[in-house]
Design goal:
Elements: E1 2-8, E2 11-18, E3 21-24, H1 25-29, H2 43-50, H3 54-67, E4 72-75, E5 92-95, H4 99-105, E6 114-117, E7 140-149, E8 165-175, E9 185-187, H5 189-192, E10 203-205
Antiparallel strand pairs: 1-2, 2-3, 3-4, 5-6, 7-8, 9-10
């Protein structure tokens, strides 16, 4: 099953692709006797509602798409696509995630994963323009594999990890080169609880 988020007059809506056609998922679900009424107005809602049974959802949506061609939004090449999951609850990235890349950077193999995060406000669709920074006109970019988690879990054994994966997609990570040295920002305990005293600095930067 191929899922997308497309732009409509109501905002970004989840769609499903069969052949070259994009179908509106909510419209198809409204015709389902067993699944209508489940929250699915966004891709995140769709995955929360049906992440435990995506193969079953696929089979039913495919059957409904064949019966209700009027629910076609348009051809995949013509529909205005946004980011597939526009508002992920968490967006974790793993740096230095394969040996060849580590070696080409001249670094040591990491003892632990290099984890960092991004924010959903930085996500755009596959054909959207990339806004360049005013700090520099240079741009770095890399192709990445994004794994979408569709089923919640905690303390998941390694051999059950794939049970929680909804799917995967290619992501182009575009960013400006590092132009400033990293700084350590230390928040004082008083700031953490919202207190402030005259003469105190709000934060210390090393």
């Amino acid at each position: 099953m191929k899922l997308v988020s497309y732009r409509s007059a109501e905002g970004l809506r989840p769609g499903v692709v069969y052949g070259t056609n994009v179908y509106d998922v909510q419209s198809l679900l409204a015709r389902s006797a067993s699944r209508s009424g489940a929250p699915a107005s966004t891709m995140r809602e769709l995955l929360c509602s049906f992440g435990d049974d995506l193969p079953g959802l696929d089979a039913e949506l495919k059957a409904l798409a064949g019966s209700y061609p009027q629910d076609v939004v348009g051809d995949l090449d013509e529909v205005d696509l946004g980011p597939a999951v526009p508002d992920p609850a968490k967006f974790f990235c793993v740096g230095l995630n394969y040996k060849t890349h580590v070696l080409e950077t001249g670094r040591e193999l990491p003892a632990f994963p290099d984890i960092f995060v991004k924010f959903h406000s930085s996500l755009i669709g596959p054909y959207d323009d990339i806004a360049l920074s005013q700090v520099t006109d240079k741009l770095d970019y890399e192709g990445e594999l994004a794994v979408v988690i569709g089923r919640a879990g905690r303390n998941i054994p390694a051999d059950r990890g794939m049970d929680h994966v909804a799917g995967a997609m290619v992501v182009i990570e575009a960013r400006r080169p590092q132009v400033l040295a990293r700084k350590t920002v230390e928040l004082r305990p008083a700031d953490a609880v919202g207190e402030h005293r005259a003469g105190d600095r709000d934060m210390a930067v090393e």
